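Exercise 7. Given the encoded structure of a 495-residue chain, write a plausible sequence.
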């Protein structure tokens, strides 16, 4: 239990100490108007209160990532907890902060537009395609996962029988509605309540296992296990752990979600709480589920058997009902199910906005929103027919590669403004190495090269990327879109 509390304390300390340092390096301006005020349209640009924006951001970025990822990562042992803490503070939260704040500084722009501004048009075109692919994969994952979990719950706990297909249709129907209606009608109104439920149930499950006489929190593990690979299936820790945990430590999907709330945030001073803070909150949720996975089943072999018997969803089901009984288990299980649903719809919403931005099509009219959204749902429906395990593997890699692009974008921004770029460059170097090594060494998804060779190429690629970003940013001053608008406004007033 002490390990868990120490990890939570480290995350909270990271928010107050490192988060403040990141905020100072970025340089907020409390007097500058945000896009929520300068571009209010009643659909996507809608001012909302800070607590509401925080809870919506937490739900938007969460999905099943901070639950399924840490459960799968727990197979490596307590090393997963160490990566959640370090990755969350120094990579994930920094990534989320810059993806949100750069969107605010650029009029609520989506991640491809931001990437294009600081890394060039080639990067913009790449990110337009890659972001849509990632969001479609996310949408499909966040349809299939909750559909399977709800089907299992209904069929096992009631006298009714439902099919997976029927649940997929119901969830897709909801996604279509939530994607095209104004952001404050469903997302802004109900998601803060769901966010509060998520936090309450996560804490409830952790409290239940802490007070349980049948389970010992992290029992059987020693401090040295934090630095060891204990995977019972002999899976290599490097670089797979850093792809597997994904959303619990760093996630490129968040870069597609942060602009949604950047369009609703009322003041730049709220950025650290909303963006950096939501990632810290997700890290705590990831720690809770990683700890439950390491503690509830008694051993890594038993955890591995539970995963093999029904995936991480089976772990959630077993732990929820095993710790809280039928009634509490249903509430906890539904709290988990809410996560992918509330991220799936925002994934499609982000896709719609990225396409609209690319085709320069305004989104105030319902007709235009449907034109952008319906093709995405047709493609998403087709992808639900692909095996979930295959979709999840490609999602994990695509997710982290998107994070790499956002981190390098943030480094380019800091370099142009002559600010301390190493806060984003160091995690960018590490995650570039992780992604390249993973795709080269993985025989199922990539090229199946030897790990040593893959790692050398990964390190070399990350260094080349750093040199490239420094070169294209050297000597280039930069004025944010918001600053440019202020200059133009002052010029008009002076004239």
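Solution.
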């Amino acid at each position: 239990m002490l390990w868990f509390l120490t990890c939570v304390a480290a995350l909270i300390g990271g928010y107050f100490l490192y988060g403040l340092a990141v905020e100072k390096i970025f340089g907020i301006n409390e007097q500058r108007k945000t896009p929520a005020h300068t571009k209010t349209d009643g659909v996507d640009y809608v001012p909302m209160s800070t607590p509401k924006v925080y809870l919506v951001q937490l739900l938007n970025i969460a999905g099943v990532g901070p639950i399924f990822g840490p459960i799968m990562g727990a197979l490596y042992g307590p090393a997963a907890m160490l990566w959640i803490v370090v990755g969350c503070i120094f990579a994930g939260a920094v990534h989320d902060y810059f993806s949100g704040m750069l969107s605010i500084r650029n009029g609520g722009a989506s991640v491809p537009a931001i990437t294009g501004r600081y890394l060039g048009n080639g990067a913009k075109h790449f990110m337009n395609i890659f972001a849509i692919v990632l969001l479609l994969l996310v949408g499909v994952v966040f349809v299939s996962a909750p559909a399977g979990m709800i089907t299992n719950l209904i069929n096992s706990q009631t006298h009714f029988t439902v099919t997976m297909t029927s649940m997929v249709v119901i969830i897709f129907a909801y996604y279509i509605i939530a994607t095209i209606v104004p952001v404050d009608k469903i997302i802004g109104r109900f998601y803060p309540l769901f966010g509060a439920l998520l936090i309450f149930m996560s804490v409830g499950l952790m409290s239940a296992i802490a007070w349980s006489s049948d389970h010992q929190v992290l029992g059987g593990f020693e401090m040295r296990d934090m630095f060891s690979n204990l995977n019972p299936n002999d899976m290599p820790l490097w670089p797979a752990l850093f792809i597997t945990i994904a959303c619990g430590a760093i996630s490129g999907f968040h870069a597609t979600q942060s602009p949604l709330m950047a369009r609703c945030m009322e003041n730049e001073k709220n950025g650290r709480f909303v963006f950096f803070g939501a990632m810290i909150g997700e890290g705590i949720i990831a720690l809770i589920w990683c700890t439950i996975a390491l503690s509830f089943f008694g051993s890594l072999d038993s955890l591995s058997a539970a995963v093999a018997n029904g995936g991480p969803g089976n772990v959630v089901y077993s732990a929820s009902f095993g710790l809280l009984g039928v009634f509490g288990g249903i509430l906890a299980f539904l709290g988990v199910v809410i996560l992918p649903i509330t991220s799936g719809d925002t994934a499609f919403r982000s896709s719609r906005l990225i396409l609209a931005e690319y085709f320069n099509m305004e989104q105030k009219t319902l007709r235009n929103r449907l034109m952008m959204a319906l093709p995405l749902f047709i493609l998403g429906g087709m992808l639900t027919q692909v095996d979930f395990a295959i979709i999840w593997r490609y999602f994990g890699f695509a997710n982290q590669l998107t994070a790499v692009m956002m981190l390098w974008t943030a480094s380019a921004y800091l370099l142009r403004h002559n600010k301390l770029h190493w806060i984003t460059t160091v995690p960018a170097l590490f995650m570039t190495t992780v992604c390249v090594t993973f795709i080269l060494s993985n025989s199922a998804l990539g090229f199946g090269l030897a790990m040593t060779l893959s790692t050398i190429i990964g390190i070399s690629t990350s260094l080349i990327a750093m040199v490239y970003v420094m070169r294209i940013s050297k000597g280039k001053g930069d004025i944010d879109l918001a600053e440019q608008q202020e200059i133009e406004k002052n010029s008009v007033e002076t004239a």
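Remark. Residues 363 and 369 are 6 Å apart (CA to CA). Students should compare their own answers with the one above.
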